[in-house]
Structure formats: C-alpha cells, structure tokens
Structure to design on (123 residues):
C-alpha cells in the first residue's frame, strides 16, 4: 500500500487548509485511516482517525471543532479539513492506515505511513 499526502503549505493564523491522502495498491473502504502530525522537536501526535465504517475519532480538544476528517471512497482519498489554523498547528502532517481490514479493536493500529506534508501557520 502507498499513501501520498498533499495540500500542505504556508498560511496565516485563522486560515484553512485541506490535506488529502490518496491510497494506492489495495482497496480503500475496508481499512481505517488516520492523521498524525509532528512538530519540530516533538513526538508524532495522533490527530484523528476514521474507522472502516466511517466513524471518526479526534484526539483531544486542540483540534476538535476545527479539524474534520472525511473520505471519498471512489477516489480512495481521505481528507483533513483544517479551519481556524493556529501557529501551534505547524507540523508535518502524515496519514496512516491499518493493514487489517474491518478492524474492530478499541484502538487504532496504524502501521503504514505516508511521507508527510508540511503545514506552516505564521504571519
């Protein structure tokens, strides 16, 4: 499986961006997809994930209400819509997927990653 992110860039505080992650090499809708980010000098942080059935989980209050995960099954693409961006959202954003179809565990188990796309929020 290959994951390719796109859509990053340099924006100002309060702006919006939509990241895309397109999957190739296998089917799409049977697998959970997730978004992570890694800021300079920090560990990779889980942003949110979408289970195979479309159920979405977000990590904490820092992104809830501002970030939205969605997907287009026909395009084999998952999106991260980011609104009202803040300087602290600056990071490399990665998408990820699980290798087990129709995962039903209480926790995600992501094991394949994209190369990341840079998001910089600055005046």
């Amino acid at each position: 499986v290959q994951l390719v992110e796109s859509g990053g860039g340099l924006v100002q505080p309060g702006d919006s961006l939509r990241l895309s992650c397109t999957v190739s090499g296998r089917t799409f809708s049977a697998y959970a997809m997730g978004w992570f980010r890694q800021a300079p000098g920090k560990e990779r942080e889980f942003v949110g994930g979408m289970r195979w059935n479309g159920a979405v989980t977000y990590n904490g209050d820092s992104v809830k209400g501002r970030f939205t995960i969605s997907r287009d099954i026909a395009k084999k693409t998952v999106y991260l819509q980011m609104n009202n961006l803040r300087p602290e959202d600056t990071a490399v954003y990665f998408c990820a997927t699980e290798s087990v179809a129709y995962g039903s565990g209480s926790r995600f188990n992501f094991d394949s990653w994209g190369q990341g796309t840079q998001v910089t929020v600055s005046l």
